[in-house]
Task: structure prediction
Amino acid sequence: MQRICVIGGSRYFGKLLVQRLQAAGHQVTVINRGSVPPPAGVEHLVADRDDEAALVAALGARSFDVVVDQVCYTPVQAAIAARVFSGRTQRYVMTSTIEVYDPATAALPEIPSGTPIPERTVDPATWRVQTNLPWHDAAYLEGHYAEGKRQAEAVLTQHHGFDFATVRSAHVLGGGSQEFTGRLAHYVERITQGIQVTVHAHPLPTVFIHYRELADLLLWAATATDFTGPLNACSDGPLDVRALSALIATQVGTEALYRTVGAGVGVGVGVGEPASPFSFDRHYAMSNARAKELGFRFSHTAQWLPEAVAEALSTPSDTTATATA
Result:
């Protein structure tokens, strides 16, 4: 049994992670703002992670074997966590995102198209941190999501107050209404209703992971391995937007219809018309080789995608598609 603290853990794969940690016999503490209580038997501390004094007060004298941070989006949040949890934990695992590799959001080393992106492409040990940017502004943060994650990784990597690992998740699917971004529902709805899907002229592949598989990987990262540094998390089997749409269309018994937008998101047939989520005109599909070398076994996207589509088909469409992982 280990003492595990989960920051966030109130929805989707974070909620499932808490359940699986508890089922595995670990002593689990969840820290969030109190909107959703954890399962019975899980300790619940109510605090805003952005309020350092409140976080310290809520923690009291507690210490943990591992902290899993599900909701760290900025270097300011990471700096608070570094100060608060130094001396309280031996290991800190942060959930990050494939978006850190998006070449449209930072000057990154060029990787040949078709080559899976390795973790070393973004090295948090050398990444520049700028805590003086307006990270507190919601609109700024939304527009700088990838950079916020890169700098959060950098702060915790460069801190050296505990062993630090970051899990860079592929686009997460599955779970029906639990998939709160609505991205898979975006495709299922349009294809089912015969609405055109907006795509780039030459879309490039991306990678995905099922929410249950991501919860399994985070459980493994927290309790069964001691790797440090960044780790890519994605199922085998990259798909571009047309291949994804074709698989959905086959399952619902119809054909996918497309509208092509111009070069660059937001430029195309309609004024300001964006491409659908998962249509990319730039390459940053991740490699999962490091996780495999460390012993984690991934599924293939084709193994779980039909179930995810079926769940989306049976779920009322009340979510808005977004571009984050």
